[in-house]
Amino acid sequence: QAYRTHLASFPTNLSLLSCITSNFSVFHCSISWHIIKQKGCLNLKMDRVRELASKKAAVIFTKSSCCMCHSIKALFYELGASPAIHELDNDASGREMEWALQGLGCNPSVPAVFIGGKFVGSAKDVFSLHVDGSLKQKLIDARGIWF
């Protein structure tokens, strides 16, 4: 019953609130208020991330204000790819999808890049692939670019 006192002052949105059940864990967010993270909800968001990631040869999860996200998008366009862009700050489920991406090991959570439905990594990983020449080949193999 102690968790109910936290709920009274808990700022949230309805999609996260609908995920709360008696089986939850509490953690502290960087702005020092309690956020309730329920594992089933994050699994649903991970399924949503995987679904979106598999719909196109190249998929990038971004935030509109992120300069590294802009750089990754520009790189893909320069290579001739037209990736699906999902801006998490413009999505009602964006925060939960961001947590799901962090669960994949993407820290910071954006940009998160998928090629051929497979998680490639964040900006550092993508730039490393570009420098060694394998990013272009991955896009060709996934039919994200043609010659």
Automatic annotation (TrEMBL):
Domain Glutaredoxin: 59-120
Keyword Nuclease assigned: no
Keyword terms: Cytoplasm, Redox-active center
GO cellular-component term (any): cytoplasm
Cross-referenced Pfam families: Glutaredoxin
Stated family: Belongs to the glutaredoxin family. CC-type subfamily.
Protein name: Glutaredoxin domain-containing protein
The organism of origin for this protein: Davidia involucrata (Dove tree)
